[in-house]
UniProtKB/TrEMBL annotation:
Similarity comment: family membership: Belongs to the MscS (TC 1.A.23) family.
Membrane topology: Multi-pass membrane protein
Protein name (database record): Mechanosensitive ion channel protein MscS
Top-level division of the source organism's lineage: Bacteria
Origin species: Polaribacter atrinae
Any one Pfam family match given in the protein's UniProt record, by short name: MS_channel_1st
Key words, A-Z: Cell membrane, Membrane, Transmembrane, Transmembrane helix
Length: 277
């Protein structure tokens, strides 16, 4: 015991009235280990109940992220106290400095506040598929300042949280796993409208990712300059790979049109020449 006490009281260095002892480093290490263990136990406990109806994986992740940041802030305060730094005095003495830093890092603070909003509000969750500035992104991680996502080209994208909270964002997976998609097509004016509608609905129904239990509907949308414009609407749970699914349906439509002699016209313009007098 005397040896242990001697080791803990050993002074590593001193500056003026301040001295750093082995016991201080031991206390800091103990705080760090306890924090890691507490977070590990909380994570295990939270994700153990992910099968419950009132929880989803995104909800649990958001809750754990908030708890983790709070726990680390408290742990950092204890570490400063262990080093002999009074946190209250430090905050009061650096108020003016914090104002200056805040002005310089205004965008960063905006991203951090946005991250807290996302984690607490839970309008965006991990595995959600978002449409941001025309890009389809699957959210992989929501951080305090930035979020990480994967686009349809399997490229990892780092998104500032303020971009999600301040811009118009479409969340394809917020309320339901089924979403309605549409494919547009134009045919010649000589085509049989009812027959075209039948082919479009059959083409969409053939795709395995299209939900056949939901209504598949083809519509005559408008009379174009060179074509009758149709639209086929269908439901699917394939959100992230919807571009590939729609491409497959277009290929089926094209094949059926060729088999049934239905032409897809190209824009045409008639020029009338007036004879000179």
């Amino acid at each position: 015991m005397d040896l242990l006490k001697t080791i803990l009281e050993f002074e590593l260095f001193s500056v003026g009235t301040y001295s750093l002892k082995v016991s201080t480093l031991f206390m800091v290490l103990l705080i760090f280990i306890i924090t890691k263990v507490v977070l590990w136990l909380l994570k295990k406990s939270l994700f153990r109940i992910k099968g419950a109806d009132e929880f989803s994986e995104g909800n649990i992740y958001s809750l754990f992220q908030i708890i983790k940041y709070v726990v680390w802030i408290i742990a950092f305060g204890f570490i400063l106290e262990a080093f002999g730094i009074k946190v209250t005095i430090l905050i009061a003495g650096s108020a003016a400095l914090l104002v200056g830093v805040g002005l310089g890092l205004q965008q960063t603070f905006n991203d951090v506040i946005s991250g807290i909003i996302l984690l607490s509000e839970r309008s965006i969750r991990v595995s959600d598929v978002l449409e941001i500035d025309g890009d389809i992104v699957k959210i992989q991680e929501i951080g305090l300042r930035t979020s990480k996502g994967l686009n349809t080209d399997d490229i990892s994208i780092i998104i500032p949280n303020s971009l999600i909270t301040t811009n118009k964002v479409i969340n394809w997976s917020h309320q339901t796993h089924l979403n309605r998609f549409r494919v547009n097509i134009g045919v010649s004016y000589e085509s049989d409208v009812e027959f075209v509608i039948k082919i479009l609905e059959e083409s969409a129904k053939e795709h395995p990712d299209v939900d056949s239990q939901k209504n598949i509907e083809a519509r005559l949308v408008s009379f174009g300059d060179s074509s009758l414009n149709f639209q086929v609407l269908f439901y699917s749970s394939t959100i992230f790979g919807s571009d590939r699914m729609k491409s497959d349906i277009r290929r089926v439509i094209r094949r059926k049109f060729i088999e049934n002699d239905i032409s897809i016209p190209f824009p045409q313009m008639d020029i009338h020449m007036k004879p000179s007098k």
